[in-house]
Amino acid sequence: MSRKYELHSGQRGSALGVRITPRASRNQIVGVLNDSTIKIHLVSDPSNEEINVELLSYLADVLGVPKSRVEIVAGENGRDKLVSVLDMDVETAHQRILAHME
Question: Which of 3, 28, 39, 49 has a CA that sits 20 to 30 A from residue 57's CA?
């Protein structure tokens, strides 16, 4: 099994740990765990890759950035994912996420 590697341009950004709960009644940020992982409920079913598309679209909306700036860099097939947000520092991302928590 070969691993796919991608070269990055070295742009600055932030990395967000995310834990997904699928099959929710609506998309929402429900909390932040002690290790700073963001808990997100998504409507999609976890058995298809639609949930990744939905996650990236939702996070782009929450953070106010184009979808092209948000990328899953680890955990594509699991509930726990690492998401990269280019050109946004961690503090700005954190503030925007807290503003969307319910």
Answer: 3
Pairing mode of beta strands 13-21, 38-41: parallel
pTM of the model: 0.82
pLDDT tens column, 21-31: 999 999 999 99
Provide DSSP, 73-102: EE-TTSSEEEEEEET--HHHHHHHHHHHB-
pLDDT digits (tens, 9 = 90+) for 28-51: 999 988 888 899 999 988 776 789
80: CB partners within 8 A, 6+ apart: 17, 18, 19, 20, 37
Domains and CATH numbers, the chain: 13-100 (3.30.1200.10)
